[in-house]
Here is the input.
Amino acid sequence: MNKVILVGHLAIDPEVRYTQTGKAVASFRLAVNKRFSHNQQNTADFFNIIAWQKLAEICGNNLTKGRQILVEGFLQTRTYNADDGSKRYTTEVVAQNIEFMGKKTENTVDKSKTQVNDENSADSFGSELPPDEEIPF
Here is the structure.
């Protein structure tokens, strides 16, 4: 069985691109803390994460550097030829499910929230959602 579950913080903003056939693909790095004993310093491993199609678009629209997420997926190893002609190998996690965790970082922009000028108006009732319920999935 090939299954990976990681919890960490985004090391960079997701980069969303589109294939020639129009499929969205997002890539980013996830920093995952290592467990440590009381005598050692915190260290982290950095994993390359790939998300496809709708999940890629959700990542691109809602995730930013520093955001804590849970990634569920599988490991994939692939090869490519470098510019110098040498064969290179890379291992990455292909995300099948991503759950947003923790609070949004200060640099995260909430694109789904609308501004209401009069907080006492009937229109503003229920307009604010808790952070965990802002993302529609």
Summary: The domain at 4-133 is CATH 2.40.50.140 (OB fold (Dihydrolipoamide Acetyltransferase, E2P)). The chain has one domain: 4-133.
